[in-house]
Hints:
mainly alpha, Ferritin, 14 helices, 77% helix, 0% strand, flat
Amino acid sequence: MPGKSDIARFMANFQSETDSAALYRAMAEAETKAELAELYLRLAKVEETHAEFWRRRIERAGGTVPAGGPGWRTRLLIWASRRFGAQAVLPMVADEEARNRTVYDNQREAVGTTMPAQERSHARMLSLIASRSKSGWNGPIYSRLEGRHGSGSANNLRAMVLGANDGLVSTFCVVMGVAGTAVSPGTLLATAVAATLAGACSMAMGEWISVQSARELQEKQIASEAEELTETPAEEQEELTLIYQAKGFTSEEAKQIAARVIADKDSALDTLVREELGINPDDLGGSAMGAAVSSFLVFLVGALVPALPMFLVAREWIVPASLISSGVGLFLLGAAISVFTGKHPAVSGLRQLLIGLAAAGVTFSFGRLFGVAVGG
Length: 376
């Protein structure tokens, strides 16, 4: 007879499968490509079968089947999928499946069923889809929002959270550092404004340089490839042959395909750029100006958390107001980051809060020492 720990495990499995099924159905609705939408629907049906398996186990053990629907994290991902598209949440879903691919390997109830193999299959399948995605891990949306935070290994939602975190922490630390010098309230308010604008402008400029430099480098690589195609077409055709052989074609098939492609210079250049250089010539990392504006706005949103409350309270309360607002903001951002990491939101939020307060404590201490030294 299953004990309480077994029933708790059955419930956790049931909730996980229920969450996955609901999320896959939402991704299917948001997916514009029919073949991917069908794939997500198939995954949802499999997860629903798994959920039913654990439902029966719970009932047989005398437990109460959870009736709350998807958890908060899944609800947030469903919202993001509907708002930004299935590709926006695909990397996080693929990561989650990769982490849980062996979840049933050592559960005796699942031994002898197809569930362990299906979980591994789902992980492989989603990993493949995510790696080939043009707008998930390394798409133009991400580049426009915060390229430096991921180097092609994150997504737009994560970039927004991290960009806001930059604005919050840096501005909070500057304000606390200046507050430690015991300056006048007016000076402290001016510092908050200066820190907010300086940080946002710095992020925007840095992002523009980052994206623009990447675009110029890729343009140079494409130009070099075009020059090589004109000067040594035979060598480029051989490269195409090797590329198609690596894709699984026979030597003869690869030679025939390469010969047809090389006959059209534009098509040959496009293929070589994509396959040999790994560059999408239609994208080139997105708009540098768009990345700059997005970085400015995302940083500004985070910076307003410690800065704005200072202008809404009496002067003797500006430091406590900034401290309280920043603490709440740090905790909420940490909880938001748990969407990507899978950690418990309370744990992630508390960790973010402690780190932020520690950083502000360091700047405040240095400000106090500097103020004492200068003031005598």
